[in-house]
Design brief:
Layout (H helix, E strand, L loop, with lengths): L12 H4 L22 H4 L3 E7 L32 E6 L13 E3 L19 E6 L2 E5 L5 E5 L5 E5 L30 E8 L5 E4 L6 H8 L17 E6 L5 E6 L15 H4 L7 E6 L9 H15 L8 E5 L5 H14 L5 E4 L8 H13 L5
Parallel strand pairs: 1-3, 2-4, 9-11, 9-12, 12-13, 13-14
Antiparallel strand pairs: 1-8, 2-7, 5-6, 5-8, 10-11
Length: 376
């Protein structure tokens, strides 16, 4: 008998992106070289679902007819409750990828009541696990229904129908043999949109190829894709920075923002929304080969795009870092940025991820800003 050959089934990208044991120290995308091409596909931060709760079971009309029990009376039981559709936030998920191809989610219908005082069985609930930070919107009205920003948070997005009452419930001294029962009520049916907004303390914003991914790879164990061409980062990356015992914070590398991003240019609105949940913004600037660009102008462009997307972002605490300062031209640019922005109240740091220059003072400043009371 021939020996079966090796399986030709290719492992999915999800199988290659097994999250590490430390749930706090992870990337949203993959870091394996073979899976880098698939990361922008695997990272799904918005899906549309149709959810249908189960209808309630109908009540029964029945009468006892046992031998030696004359005039036994009504015995129709109630219908069972319909199952509900429940969303549950869990921190082991970092993307909505598993729901990408699920078009409709249905819960079980409640069973009808039966004779001999038998009530129908309740329909089973359907629990859908989603990443922490998922917002639930009504697709038709665009109203925000829930914000699942804590692990374990639950939201009943579609409630099951109530079971109808059987004729046993309608018996009265004046009507001992009622011949009526109630039908079950229909379960809720909705079309919803799930939007994932990452939860991070610090959000790094900047033009493409200014060193954001290299920075987060240096200060944390996140391993984003790093290359010398624009838009290398196609998905947000999360990493945990540890400065000591009880001194940790989550930092997010947001894919490159360019002029017009608030109107859809570049990667557009898809990733700008992830900035909304950050508490502190770190502007990453650097020297670009394009002679028409310079760091101070890039900063003003970033501020304008953030303001157009959400004016409230301009009220967030901000720190500015000029990267690649191991290069002479970047060092010169740092002086120009410092002179332009420090008088406006911004802290400006010169850093180099290649040599680790300036990283410790920057991280200390980020932590101090993050822990600063809101009214300070």
């Amino acid at each position: 008998m021939a020996t079966p050959g090796p399986s030709r089934r290719k492992h999915s990208a999800l199988a290659q992106c097994t999250p590490p044991a430390d749930l706090f120290e992870h990337q949203v995308g993959c870091s394996d070289k073979e899976a880098d091409v698939l990361t922008s596909v695997d990272f799904v931060d918005e899906v549309t679902l149709e959810v249908a709760a189960g209808d309630g079971g109908n009540g029964a009309v029945a009468f006892r007819r046992e031998k030696f029990v004359p005039l036994g009376g009504p015995s129709g039981g109630d219908g069972g409750r319909g199952g509900s559709v429940i969303l549950v936030a869990h921190d082991r998920f970092s993307t909505l990828f598993d729901l990408r191809f699920r078009r409709i989610v249905r819960a079980e219908r409640g069973e009808n009541g039966r004779g001999k005082d038998q009530f129908g069985k309740a329909g089973g609930d359907v629990r859908i696990e989603v990443p922490v930070g998922t917002q639930v919107y009504d697709q038709e009205s665009n109203a925000l229904l829930a914000d699942l920003h804590e692990s374990g948070a639950e939201f009943v997005v579609a409630e099951g129908g109530r079971g109808g009452r059987g004729n046993i419930k309608f018996a009265t001294p004046h009507d001992r043999a009622p011949r009526r029962a109630q039908p079950g009520t229909p379960g809720q049916h909705k079309k919803i949109r799930l939007v994932l907004k990452l939860l991070a303390d610090i959000g790094i914003v900047g033009f493409p190829n200014v060193g954001k991914s290299t920075f987060i790879a240096t200060v944390s164990r996140a391993r984003p894709k790093v290359a010398d061409y624009p838009f290398t980062t196609l998905v947000p990356n999360l990493g945990v920075v540890s400065l000591g015992v009880d001194r940790t914070f989550v930092i997010a590398d947001i894919p490159g923002i360019i002029e017009g991003a608030s109107e859809g240019a570049g990667l557009g609105l898809r990733f700008l929304k992830h900035v909304e949940r950050t508490q502190v913004l770190l502007h990453m600037l650097s020297v670009d080969p394009d002679p028409e660009r310079e760091p101070v102008a890039d900063f003003e462009t970033l501020m304008a795009e953030l303001g157009r997307f959400d004016p409230g972002l301009l009220e967030r605490p901000m720190i500015v870092a000029v990267s690649k300062c191991d290069l002479p031209e970047a060092r010169e640019a740092y002086e120009d940025v410092r002179k332009a922005l420090e008088p406006r109240g911004f802290q400006v740091f010169a850093i180099s991820s290649a040599t680790s220059e300036g990283l410790s003072p920057l991280l200390e400043a980020l932590e101090a800003t993050l822990r600063r009371p809101d009214d300070a």
